[in-house]
Automatic annotation (TrEMBL):
Lineage, uppermost ranks: Bacteria, Pseudomonadati, Bacteroidota, Cytophagia, Cytophagales
Protein's name according to its UniProt entry: Acetylglutamate kinase
UniProt KW Thylakoid keyword: no
Pfam families in alphabetical order: AA_kinase (PF00696)
Keywords, in A-Z order: Amino-acid biosynthesis, Arginine biosynthesis, ATP-binding, Cytoplasm, Kinase, Nucleotide-binding, Transferase
Pathway annotation from the record: Amino-acid biosynthesis; L-arginine biosynthesis; N(2)-acetyl-L-ornithine from L-glutamate: step 2/4
Reaction catalysed by this enzyme: N-acetyl-L-glutamate + ATP = N-acetyl-L-glutamyl 5-phosphate + ADP
PANTHER family named among the record's database cross-references: N-ACETYLGLUTAMATE SYNTHASE, N-ACETYLGLUTAMATE SYNTHASE, MITOCHONDRIAL
Family under the similarity heading: Belongs to the acetylglutamate kinase family. ArgB subfamily.
Cellular component per GO, a single term: cytoplasm
Organism: Chryseotalea sanaruensis
Length: 262
């Protein structure tokens, strides 16, 4: 099977034009088929503060009321997505910006209220992905760039970008050898969040359980690890978590960061 890189970019890299441009240059230079998924939570929070829309998180996930839904649709699907697409076009990388509603690419269901009401947040499964359309785009050497938005019942839904990356990887794993890479500003999963040299090079399911019990893992890394293990358990060949600057290493034979396996 052909190789496919599914790459998620987030964290402070999106807030720093110089770092983001450097990452996008590396991304554009990857010759193999590729898909990019981006976050943008900090940008949404900053613009929300300017508009008087407060942010509320639980376990690293944003609570999305009506006003917040409008905010993230505007920021993720518009501002962040289109800036990335425009930069990639300048780099001769024929990118197309996508939300889950475009081409019915990712359907979702509104997350049911249990202990926490997350509001207008979408939950998705691999079967909710329009894989035939994705195949068409990839065959045309068009690079899908996904904003973290899905849809259901005529409504946009806020959906974690790490989750979208994982679900896309699972949906396409029957057709490609997938390497899923989560990129952000850290060198990988850190044992001590203040110490960049404390990278945990390899995390298994047992290691993950132990780290949770020790309260080592902070909120921001939890969605990445949850989605990494979901992907590995569902047939995705390789998952890496690492620094955006190491993208080209992590798309080659020598890898940096944290490797996730069962």
């Amino acid at each position: 099977m052909n190789k496919l890189f599914i790459i998620k970019i987030g964290g402070n890299v999106l807030d720093n034009p110089e770092q983001l441009n450097s990452f996008l240059k590396d991304f554009a230079s990857i010759r193999e088929p590729k898909i990019l998924i981006h976050g943008g939570g900090k940008i949404a929070t900053h613009i929300g503060n300017q508009l008087g829309i407060a942010s509320n998180y639980v376990n690293g996930r944003r609570i999305t009321d009506e006003h917040t839904l409008d905010l993230v649709t505007m920021v993720y699907g518009g501002l962040v997505n289109k800036k990335i697409v425009a930069t990639l076009q300048q780099l001769h990388c024929n990118a197309i910006g996508i939300t889950g509603a475009d081409g019915n690419m990712i359907k979702a269901v509104k997350r049911p209220v249990k202990d926490i009401d997350y509001g207008f947040v979408g939950d998705i499964k691999p079967g909710d992905v329009n894989t035939p359309l994705l195949h068409v785009l990839l065959k045309q050497n068009t690079i899908p760039v996904f904003a973290p938005l899905t849809h259901a019942d005529g409504k946009m839904l806020n959906t974690n970008a790490d989750t979208i990356a994982s679900v896309l990887s699972i949906a396409l794993s029957k057709h490609f050898d997938i390497r899923l890479i989560f990129c952000f500003e850290k060198k990988g999963v850190l044992h001590h969040v203040e110490d960049e040299n404390s990278v945990i090079r390899h995390i298994t399911q047992n290691t993950y359980t132990s780290l949770l019990q020790q309260n080592v893992l902070k909120d921001g890394i939890l969605p990445k690890l949850e989605n990494a293990f979901s992907a590995i358990k569902s047939g995705v060949k390789e998952v890496l978590i690492g620094e955006a600057n190491d993208l080209l290493k992590n798309t080659g034979q020598v890898t940096e960061g944290t490797l996730i396996t069962l």
